[in-house]
Write a structure and sequence with these properties.
The protein is built from no helices and 8 strands. The protein has 98 residues and is mainly β. The strands form 2 sheets. The protein has a 6-stranded mixed beta sheet, with no helix packed on it. A two-stranded antiparallel sheet has the order 7-8.
């Protein structure tokens, strides 16, 4: 889609600023995913149609993942409040809400 020379079984190219694939039943109730075609080339998942509703970003050059931020400084950067749990072997990091 969006190309006359696909390179895979499904190739999607677009010019939208917030991604190449959108799903939902209206602009206000949709999800977009794809590359940030305007500035960075990062992979984005966006809730709705505005960059302010960005939910996840994977940086193109570093592979850093950001949740709640569009500038992840480490392999995983999470910005926001809430409870989380991460078990690593016998070590528990963070707060368990259950």
């Amino acid at each position: 889609m969006g190309t006359t020379a696909p390179i895979n079984k499904l190739t999607v190219y677009g010019t939208g600023a917030l991604g190449d694939i959108r799903t939902g039943y209206s602009d206000a109730s949709s999800w977009s995913l794809g590359r940030d075609n305007v500035t960075t080339g990062d992979f984005l998942i966006v809730d709705g149609t505005t960059a302010a509703a960005e939910r996840l970003r994977i940086q193109h050059g570093t592979g850093n993942v950001g949740i709640g931020t569009n500038t992840p400084a480490t392999r995983l950067t999470v910005v926001g409040s809430g409870n989380f749990r991460m078990d690593v072997g016998n070590y528990r990091i963070g707060n368990d809400a259950t």
